[in-house]
Each structure stands twice: as structure tokens, then as C-alpha cells.
Amino acid sequence: MGQIKLEQVTKSFGPVEVIPPLDLTIGDGEFTVFVGPSGCGKSTLLRLIAGLEDITSGTIRIDGQDATNVPPAKRGLAMVFQSYALYPHMSVRKNIAFPMRMAGIPEDEQNRRIEAAATALNLTDYLERRPGQLSGGQRQRVAIGRAIVREPAAFLFDEPLSNLDAALRVGMRLEISELHKRLATTMIYVTHDQVEAMTMADKIVVLQAGVIEQVGSPLELYRAPRNVFVAGFIGSPKMNLLSGPEAEKHGVHTIGIRPEHTAISTESGTWEGTVGVAEHLGSDTFLHVQCPQFAEPLTVRASGEFPVQYGDRIFLTPDPAHLHRFDAAGLRIA
Amino acid sequence: MATQHSRSAARFMMAPAVILLLGWMLVPLIMTLYFSFKRYLPLRGGDLGWTGFDNYVRFVTSSAFWPSVQATLIIVGGTLLITVIFGVLLGILLNQPMWGQGVVRILVIAPFFVMPTVSALVWKNMFMDPVNGLFAHLWKAVGAQPIEWLSDISLFSIVLIVSWQWLPFATLILLTAIQSLDSEQLEAAEMDGAPVLKRFAYITLPHLSRAITIVILIETIFLLSIFAEIFVTTGGAFGSRTLTYLIFQRVLESQNVGLGSAGGVYAIILANIVAIFLMRIVGKNLDA
Ligand SMILES: Nc1ncnc2c1ncn2[C@@H]1O[C@H](COP(=O)(O)OP(=O)(O)OP(=O)(O)O)[C@@H](O)[C@H]1O
Ligand SMILES: [Mg+2]
What we know:
The structure holds two protein chains of two kinds.
Chain A: E1 4-13, E2 16-26, E3 31-35, H1 42-50, E4 57-62, E5 65-66, E6 77-80, H2 92-103, H3 107-120, H4 136-148, E7 154-158, H5 166-183, E8 186-191, H6 194-200, E9 203-208, E10 211-216, H7 218-223, H8 228-233, E11 240-243, H9 245-249, E12 254-257, E13 262-265, E14 271-280, E15 284-290, E16 298-303, E17 313-318, E18 324-326, E19 332-333
Parallel strand pairs in A: 3-8, 3-9, 6-7, 7-8
Antiparallel strand pairs in A: 1-2, 1-4, 4-5, 9-10, 11-12, 12-18, 13-17, 14-15, 14-17, 15-16, 18-19
Chain B: H1 4-36, E1 38-41, E2 46-50, H2 54-61, H3 65-95, H4 101-109, H5 116-127, H6 134-141, H7 149-152, H8 154-179, H9 183-191, H10 196-223, H11 228-233, H12 243-253, H13 257-287
Antiparallel strand pairs in B: 1-2
Helix pairs in contact in B: 1-13, 2-13, 3-8, 3-10, 3-12, 5-8, 8-10, 9-10, 10-13, 12-13
């Protein structure tokens, strides 16, 4: 069990209100990702849930029970920190055993769980090593192992992959997703990498300055961003957001069109422009196109290779079915 | 490029410094060894010739020897115990965010800047004096018989004075070590269900082990040779005579240079035993 509910939760550091009143429900077994730009309060929110930080007002419920004033150890949550926070003077085995030792679990049960976790996380060969003798990915796995053995109601991850290199990150991402499928335990995962958010989440919570901008499944957010901020934040490369005369043609303040929803042609189209930088990824080509009527260059995607050069003339046609419309307040117009 | 030529030039250039340092160390050592085999009484006939190991035997068999070794070890051990324990506690306290932190930190470090002679005098006359001392007044205020600090519990009193001087040093080193502890580790332990005391025992203390070793090592080196504090307070009476002080008495009060020199050689041996012992522990702790 691991349903977490925040009711009118706020957090202030002195006079600065980091989290204005916030409501959020995280269902049992859900993989929820908090995503948002740096400094928007993701870590703070996670630490409030963990109990490492006292909330200024509001209520936190875990499985329906009021947990607002329950100390962190008693909330039944396990946290994986960005710096891993392994205990450097203890072997991997002792690190993983630590929470069980504190809980007074019998020795043989401890060993059974350590072996199970080590097997699941490929740590069997490293159990007697110190954290200092492990690679970043291995340390990450030890930190996850230490969280698993407690059999918590929910896992909290604070940017666990940000210290790893790109290749390892993709691997660990899969491992964590698999772990979630296998354990079916609630997980809350903080990241500012929207690719991680899109690939891992059942539910994404987009935050900006402590305010929840939108909650929904990755595809909901992709298809129907509630406002300009979410539209620009979810999706890679970013959605092109256009205002001015072109938007007024559609009778709105801002229109948005994703790079992958724009048809490209060298002969004819709605907008005419010149090709700037072209990024050839093999499977896709991303073109940055400067159109005279827009201040910012547009990003468009072409499947496979697209044979254009810097400075070539090009025509773009947005797909009207995928055009997003926003009003002056930045809110989506259905 | 270290050619033959430049290397010999370097040796030549370094020679004065090396010779000076060597001389600085060797001359007193050799003179101590030389006098320790002599019967040399400056005011009672001067150099009376070689005596072999006579001085060594007399120094050890004197009834003052073992008590002095014991006093030395008690003072060193007691001071280490107090400074390390209170250093850790003060370090943790000073690491808490509080009002006036900067001033408090400077105040805590202040005793280190007071000269040993001065601090011993202040303690002797202002705190521990059985008639006019602050402690005496305090004891009288609660209706108790004032303690004769420096005569009844002289070793403890000296340990107290010396600890007061060395606590800032220990606190300073341990505070910096505490500051370098990753707060996420403590939070992880908190989430893992470790209450405050267990967090201290399992996370903070192991993290401090290296700093504690360094404090112990450095303090031991200086504490083995404390002198001013004893000279000023008890003058070596009431069982507070350390090895250093015994040597001083043999040489200057009894005017027996030979006997004192033999004692000096014993002091060197004692210091080395302690040093080897410590290096073992330190080596182990510094490797990790
Ligand atoms: N202890 C603190 N005291 C005062 N302000 C704080 C404290 N901790 C965080 N803040 C402020 O709260 C805001 C949110 O911080 P938080 O660490 O939650 O951001 P974040 O979303 O996790 O960012 P990042 O992606 O960079 O980790 C920031 O503006 C930060 O300056
Ligand atoms: Mg953060």
C-alpha cells in the first residue's frame, strides 16, 4: 500500500514561500514523476513528503492516515538521494543491512533480503566492497538496494541519475522502470529531464515556482498541454510557440506547433524561410528555420535524412490537427 | 631535468639547511647521552668522571620514577579524554545554526591564545584557590567545604587546566571535520530509522575518526612535555610530578646533570613507545 495525498500543503523558508497551497494525490503503485525547471521546488516537495522538511501548513496523508507530524523513519518511505548518500565506512553489505539493523530485523531474514536485493541489482560480487571502490552506477544500485530491503510503502527518488553519464543513465532508467513493474510499489521520482519523465512515468506532475501546472499521463501532457509553460516544457525538441499576426489569423494570442507536426517542402507551403543549423541524427533531421514573420527560428523535424544546406529556401506547413491554441493568459483553448 | 650535475648542485645548496637541522637535533641528543654516563655535579665538584650505567640504574630505582611515569600518562590520557569528548560535543554544538555564531566560535578558540603560564596562574589564583577562589565561593555558597584543588586532587586539577587550554584546538579540528560531513548521509540514516544517538554512533563518529586520530597524535606530542602548568601550580608536589618535571628537578634542584640526562634518555624512549603505538593507529586510520 502506498497512497500519498497532499492537502493544501505549503512550505516557506522564512519569508519566502517556496510552495504555495498545493493539492496532489498519488495513487497506490503509481510511478509519479515531478518535473520542472531548476529551483521550482521539486526536491522541497519530495523532502516534505519524506518528512525531512517540516511543512508550514496543510496535511500529508499516507494511506489515509495523517502523517503530517510523523517522523521520517515512521512514514515507511525509502529515499534515494542524488549524491547516493551511502555510508562510506561501511561495506556494501552493511550499507544495505543498515535500515534492517535499525528496525531490528533478525539476522537470517536480513541476509535473505540482502541476497535477494544483490541478485536483483547485480551487486553480488561487490557486497564486501566499500562505496569508495564502486563506480557511479554501482553506487546508485547500492542506494536502490538499501531502499528496497526496507520494503517501503513508497520509494522517493531525487534526481538519482543526474550524476551518471548518458549511456548509463539510459540503462539505469530501464532498470528503475523494471523494478517498478516487478515490485508494483508507489514511486515518486524527481527529475528535470523531460525525457526521463516521459519514458518512465505513469503520471507526470509539472511544477513551476512551486505551483502544479498540470498533472497527467505523459501522452495527455504531450497531446493537450494545459498552458504555454507545459507546452514548452514537455516534448523534445521544444514546441514552437508563435504569437503575433500569425496567431491572430487563428484568432488567439499564441499558437504552438511541435517540430514533428510540421510538413517540410522545398517547393510550397504556408510559411517560407531559410534553413539555419541542421542537426543530422541519422533517424531524424532537426532543422532550425528562420522565417521573416517570426522573431525566433522555428525547429522542425524531418524523418530520416533531409538534403538541405545552410541558407537554402524552405517551406513549412503546420498540421492543423496538431495546432495548439493559447489565450492571452497562456491557457489552452480547446 | 635532473642531471648528475644539477643533482649535486642541489645537494650542495641544501647542505647548510640539512646540516643545521641535523646539528640542532644531534648536538643536544649527543650531549644528553654524554652527560648521562658521567657523574657531573656542577655545584659539588663538577665533572667527577665516567660512571657507566650508574645514572640509569639510579634514575629508575628512585622511588619517584614510576609515580612520575604514571602521572605523565594520567595527565596525557586524562586531557586527551576530556578534550576529545568535549571537543566532539562542542563541535556539534557550534555546527548548529544559532545566533551570534561567529562571536561564539572566536570565544571558544580564545583559550588557545593564552600562554600556559598565564592560564595556569589564573586557574590557580582565581578559580582553585581554597580561600579566595571562585570555586571555593561556589562551594561555600551551597554550604559545602571548599575543595583544596591543587593539593587534594592535584592531578585532576592539572588535567582540568591543561584540558581548558587544549579544548579549543580539538574543537576547531573536529568542527571542521563535522562541517565536511555530507548532510544527505545523516538524512539517509534518519529515513533508515536511526534515531539521533544511533546517527551519531554510526555516521558522525566514524566520519570523525580521522580527525580524532589527528587530535590525539598532535596533543600527545605536546602534552608529554608539559611543564609550565605544573611548575606554576603545584611545583611538582602532591603527586603531580611528571617525568619532564622529575628531570627538571634532578638537573636544576638537585644539581645532578648526569642523573637528569639519564632521565632525559628515558623520556625519549617513553615518547618513542607512545609514538610507535600512535603511528600504528594513525596509519590504520589515515589509510582508510
Ligand atoms: N533550506 C532552504 N532555505 C531557503 N531556501 C531554500 C532552502 N531549500 C530550498 N530553498 C529554495 O526553494 C526553492 C526550491 O528549491 P528546490 O531544491 O526544491 O528546487 P529543485 O526544483 O529541486 O531544483 P533542482 O532541479 O535544481 O534540484 C529554491 O528557490 C531554493 O532557493
Ligand atoms: Mg533538487
